Amino acid sequence: MGLQGGIKSCNEKMLKGWKEAILREYPKLSPKSKFRFSCHKGLSCFTQCCGDVNIFLTPYDVLRMKRALNLSSEEFLGKYTIPLLLEDQKLPVVLLKMRDDDRKSCPFVTSEGCTIYEDRPWSCRMYPLGMASSKTEDRVDGEEFCFIVEEGFPCLGFKEDKEWTVEEWWKDQGIELYNKKCEPYKEITLHKHFREGKGLGPSKIQVFYITCYNLDRFRRHLFESRFFSLFDVQNELVERLKTDDEELLNFGFDWLRFSLFGEDTLRIKDEALETKKRELGLNIG
Ligand code: SF4
Ligand code: SF4
Q: Is 187 within a domain?
């Protein structure tokens, strides 16, 4: 599904208010900070937390989940997500769509647990930790820190004996890989373009959404257009982009920096430039 399906504006003030409350009130954890937690079958709260929750999916979350479910990007986005638009930056984001049942359950929860556990999203991996950042478009040098998430339901995991440091938890949950894969995405969302108060127009919002979340459509765009006759991309990379979603997502981030901000992350072929100049009559004499 593209944005034509109707993208609702996200109440960014609410998100900002929540973020400010965390920065102000929640104890900041360091990598060595300790906490007690264990989540497992047998606890009376098991799976109770997998419902009525806002889970924003990163581009890498979407990649992992659609791959695990063996779905195309369009099928995954249409069935499992709600597209939203952050009002200030005009950046599209996607929210995991909960089921339409009394508990608003996650579509992937069963009495046995999470059916996509190996590919669960970043925020599910992080729990019971959350991550906050004082970095904004205006303040890129802000700090990032973890905090203990306080949810409305009684989470019995905190009463278990198992003790972790924050860094042990990250390692156990595979957080480092997810952070690494999303670093270029984060840099784009904090780009100076937004710092200077410039948002994105409707066509760029569309480009951003497709490139980050609808990888199958992005791939079709690359291979069914004149893209590779215009841009200088190594043949080996072109071959990998045909089948490798992770490579495609990385390439997509370069494409976004080029197409949204005019950076030189991609190179236009000399002959394509010459043709363009000729068309514009710029090389006379
Ligand atoms: S409420 Fe806490 S302990 Fe219970 S299933 Fe959820 S995360 Fe695990
Ligand atoms: S994706 Fe898995 S872990 Fe995350 S809310 Fe759904 S069932 Fe729970």
A: no
Kindly state if the Cβ of 114 falls inside 6 Å of ligand 2.
yes
In the chain, the DSSP E strands lie at: 8-10, 34-36, 56-57, 81-86, 91-96, 109-110, 113-114, 129-133, 144-148, 163-165
* Nearest alpha carbon, ligand 1 atom 8: 39
Name the pLDDT band for 57 (thresholds 50, 70, 90). very high
Task: Please report the sign of the dihedral spanned by the C-alpha atoms of residue 71, residue 99, residue 13, residue 153.
Answer: negative
Q: Quick one: 117 and 199 in the same domain?
A: no
Tell whether the model's pLDDT for residue 177 goes beyond 80: yes
Q: How many domains does the chain have?
A: 2
Q: Are residues 178 and 249 in the same domain?
A: no
pTM assigned to the model:
0.88
Which ligand lies nearest the alpha carbon of 149? 1
Is 174 in the same domain as 51? yes
**Residue 10 confidence (pLDDT):** 53
Judge if the beta carbon of residue 57 lies within 6 A of ligand 2: no
Residue nearest to atom 2 of ligand 2 (CA): 114
> Average pLDDT, stretch 185-194?
92
